[in-house]
Structures
1.
Amino acid sequence: MKKRPTIKDVARKAGLALSTVSLVINNSGYVSAEARKKVLQAIEELGYHPSRAARGLASRTSGNIGFILSEDHFSLAEPFYTKIFLGTEFEARKHNYYILMTTVGTRFREPTDVPRFLLEHNVDGVIIAGRVNEKLVAYVDRLGLPLALVDFAVPKKHYSSVQIDNRKGACLAVEHLLSLGHRAIGFVGGDISHPSIAERFDAFKDCLVDHAIPLKPDLIVADMPGTAVQDGAEGMKVLLDRGSRPTALFAANDAIAIGCMQLARQRGVRIPEDLSLVGFDDIETSAHLEPPLTTIRVLKEELGAAAVRTLVEAVKAKSATTMTVHVPVELVVRGSTCQLAAASPGARASTG
Amino acid sequence: MKKRPTIKDVARKAGLALSTVSLVINNSGYVSAEARKKVLQAIEELGYHPSRAARGLASRTSGNIGFILSEDHFSLAEPFYTKIFLGTEFEARKHNYYILMTTVGTRFREPTDVPRFLLEHNVDGVIIAGRVNEKLVAYVDRLGLPLALVDFAVPKKHYSSVQIDNRKGACLAVEHLLSLGHRAIGFVGGDISHPSIAERFDAFKDCLVDHAIPLKPDLIVADMPGTAVQDGAEGMKVLLDRGSRPTALFAANDAIAIGCMQLARQRGVRIPEDLSLVGFDDIETSAHLEPPLTTIRVLKEELGAAAVRTLVEAVKAKSATTMTVHVPVELVVRGSTCQLAAASPGARASTG
DNA sequence: TTCTAATATCGAAGCGTTTCGAGGTCATAC
DNA sequence: GTATGACCTCGAAACGCTTCGATATTAGAA
């Protein structure tokens, strides 16, 4: 409980000016080897460590990075963004930053909806994960704070961002299905206004075309309002009611895939025998489904870590250069996909 | 990018002294209704918000709570403490605090192993989750910082803490097994030096005695070094090699239970037919095992939230009163336990 | 030798708050 | 009529740093 030493005490003990001590601590300016040694020793003996608040006030830096998440994403049911957040925590510690986390609603009005750490000037940079109100993004930008978006982009604007390699993922999925002999490959997506979903859809189409497979519009459903389980079920229903019979399906994400699975079961469509199914994201539950879902794994922690690295660079550089990082994805083959040959009707009945 | 207003600007605009403005902001001292109104209006018009750094320096508060976690617990494989952490984030936002997170190793030497936020005086209180070096706890205590331990306790010392209701949980487990007709109930634990594990073991014994079931030492294994899956397998092995044949088993946590399951499968012991098994914690995977594990659910996020509440109280009160909060647990019945009747040898063979 | 630039140290002016004590007004109690 | 205390406002002194400009010294270039 005794008073902790200040830079003044160090200066006195070292017999040097306070400002010289500061130079040593910050490794800036000119300091003789001798003076440096004296300062270091005094620091050591006193057990001195600079105060963050004082340093922050004088240098107008906080040592913190703000992490903004949309409210509906920071639920315990949504481990996707939660993992991104944990990824930022991991990486921030490596760079001697702390993460201040907050969530925001879809509305954005000043100053009520401005994250407190922005009002208090308590962060040196901001990470925004997932879709948030564009006005919030603009607000952060106007503050002149380094900014990195994760799995989100604002149309017509260039911000630094960390993106999932959606195109690659979609290709991996399609090529996996092709390699299994599938040709009638469908797509179930929703909320095409979400950049990631749109990109997956786009790449899906491109990839088929690249492999000389003609697109069949009746195998595609992409107009559900959201990207949750019920949207997947809804999409699957539309597809089946339409009379379409794809042998394989690429779902825009795992939640949608799960919805497809549920409806398939209701309608007596067997997975993978009658229909191979590939998801995207590799969320926790996917591995535990029956059958376990073949999917595209997204390295969620890596998304967060990359965002921190981007930001730390930006803070150091003080330049407004923006950059986009694409985090790799990988195919995880599980039980929801199989060779087309085995998918002919009755194949199972004859063996069972 | 234009300079943000300071308290000085507010004072000028309101035609009052800077200190009066401060009093209004902090709702302290005497301020006339008229003056308050003028200040509030000036603040509104200028869009003023106090700077955290300046306020921190002057008032020696940071608005942050430090969260210390043992290194091996902050892995992505260990969602238990990670969830506690998320629980603190949730709750901290409600009280206008931010969480600064760090991990520590088992060693503790000053000043190398001291969390940076402590050196920088950058937190108003500290939460320590899980077992850490006792010297670290003593160090925090010596700093005079409010402290709350989560799922950890230091022998012979009284710190505020948030505990799992281990006794209740163990009783729920035992009584569940008793209600299924089991009498030969075994225990597999490890690392009895961990307070939580010890308490579960203790309550297990007490509960049996309370129900007039004599303790059979040969049904108990509790000397493994750790509490992980392999320790569970090891314990199960010892039990079986010893020739003990409990009809039901209470494992000190889910990881241990999983180890038991694995070894049981190897040895041809069927769960639940030959052996009913109850775990503790309700970790993510437990629900997805085959069979899904009956266990005692621990509200992990609530542990974290309770710790924050405890700490916020302590910061406000400035008193050194300590308190222990017990967070409730609940029994989750799944497929790894069943009625004793069905467990007679051959019961399955005759139906299969 | 003289000038310049690099090196080294220092004092002082902030950074934007909180807090303390001084000083003033006014109503109430004695 | 004066003392007392509540109420109100203010200026100034911290809080513990960074940073700027001044000054001094030294080494190398001209």
2.
Amino acid sequence: MDGASAAKPNKRVTITDVARHAGVSTAAVSKVMRNAYGVSEAMREKVQAAIDDLGYRPHAAARGMRGRTYTIGVLLDNVRNAFFADILDGIRDELRHTDYTVLIGAAGFDPEEQARTIRSLVDRQMDGLILIAPGTPRAEVLDTAASTPTVVIGHHDASDTYDSVVDADDLGAGLVVDYLVSLGHRDIALVSAPGTRANKWKRTPEAVLSEGYLHAMQRHGLDRLARVQHTAYSDDGGFKAGMTLLTADRPPTAVMTGADVAALGVYRAAHELGLRIPRDLSLVGYNNTALAALAPVQLTSVDQAGHTMGSAAARMLVERVESRRDRAMQTTMTPRLVVRSTTSAPQGR
Amino acid sequence: MDGASAAKPNKRVTITDVARHAGVSTAAVSKVMRNAYGVSEAMREKVQAAIDDLGYRPHAAARGMRGRTYTIGVLLDNVRNAFFADILDGIRDELRHTDYTVLIGAAGFDPEEQARTIRSLVDRQMDGLILIAPGTPRAEVLDTAASTPTVVIGHHDASDTYDSVVDADDLGAGLVVDYLVSLGHRDIALVSAPGTRANKWKRTPEAVLSEGYLHAMQRHGLDRLARVQHTAYSDDGGFKAGMTLLTADRPPTAVMTGADVAALGVYRAAHELGLRIPRDLSLVGYNNTALAALAPVQLTSVDQAGHTMGSAAARMLVERVESRRDRAMQTTMTPRLVVRSTTSAPQGR
DNA sequence: CAGAGCGTGTAAAACGTTCTCCACGTCGAG
DNA sequence: CTCGACGTGGAGAACGTTTTACACGCTCTG
């Protein structure tokens, strides 16, 4: 009524507008948009001209009612983990020149909230889902995957309904143990994430990492010295784990962790206890995130090729979405040790 | 035809199913879902029971055709900046117990790709948009805001179509300069992001920061010593800026940067030149991200209350979406200096 | 006791696409 | 010349919601 500028002034250009402008049917326009079969070159050009003229952009919600929405959903527990940023970059680069848009749902660590986020993505008609180390019960993921193409990153549990991309975390652990042993360490501890509760994932990254660590220690005849401290992958979690380990009767001379950020928590604990790194304690992270390379940090770590994992996941997902493949598959990446300045031979006792 | 497990087995439960199950019309169910006016208590209970029975979840795409989609879109240039993670957490916490879902579009730094991402969000019928320091031309943002409620975080340029949330970056710069001067520094340089090109944002965070820095230097009679080095906010960008500054004829005794990660790049440059921190060079970051607090880092920084900024943005946006407010508004947060171990009195010459 | 007004529920028309048919014209084979 | 096949375009029915407009029955007022 009054002169106040309202919210929605100019209406959207719809497919009907384009059809009218080009003097053809909406069906024809739709075909051109999706470059479907059954349209002549002349028609394509005419319609394309109309589209450009009017600046038409398809209405995704309307598309979602019938066909695809050209949107890929990514579930993430934790935006802070720089490793996930690498994965995200990989996904984005792979999809950059396609029609797909990537939308990220950041859910936090709570399994219930993660489940809610996954449902949100499904309800919004994502064409496909990439779940990064989901904490939701496996049954829910299987359920989702039954109706929407899904790629799971991280968990080693394979399935015939979803695809997966994993790092050979067992090899990664072996790499670290071998290296530390070669430096002369024997008393090597692992800081890993807490085990999965009742959510039915048997082979989480942390479980496989622990397994690889234990095997490697065994291989070197050091099983009696092996010990795993469970904690959250955060600065604080690492700090607590570090405190526990380093104030024990016989503290380790080297600590490896399942995440770079946790390693820096251990670093803080060591510092507070007056230990110098690497003189008094060797420290190894995991994931080789940007964090590890920082000048004041210089953390020895294990590189997981997050970017490659992300692009592999995106490629696999699109294959499924466009039903060019109907069999589940699993991609495994090989980790690589990156030595920096937080590791050295143990001080003689 | 064959026994191979197909993609979509069980159909979704729709509003029609619920209506039939409850013996009412779909309109009634719709009203209950949106708790709209005109439904009796008895009706509400009956319908709610049917919803629970069937596990009904509304189809967001279908909703988007007519009404709202209960989705908030967030545009982010860079997942790696930990400061943005704080903002995201604030948004999420604010919206946790509402019906809204937050979806993030990670666009990277390229303005064209950012514009594409914004369009994607609009096409997907987001109810509202939160743009974190967008690099797209201001005109485009105004255009978007004309049809979709929008909150801009970072840029100080106000508008009567979008709301904004900013940090008083000029005060922040003043805080740092005052502190460094009080320690005895005079030769203080600033590392800031490159100026905006032709995109018409006049008062970007970096512009306001530079302004505040220059004023503060002037206030202390140090304007002749002021110098601003422009670079990307990344480890590498900081490194290059640091190299330039520290190899100059008369290198500064203190460097402040517009982002923590850039400060760590300067740190690396200093290290490479054999300078010790804070003895030979005092270093101050900005944003007080988790990075700054890390044990090996201990960077003096300026805290911006990202979490609070995020929740403020979310609150403002929801007010707009639910049209409880029709006037643009701007929220400004006050920064706070956090002193750690990268700053000290300059070494006498 | 008529009629206005209110509270509650429903029918049905959007919303902007996709996609299945079907019609039409042309061309080649017989 | 006829018939079938093929290539191209269009009509119209979905898809699952929201929302408008209205019908119905009740209560209250005068």
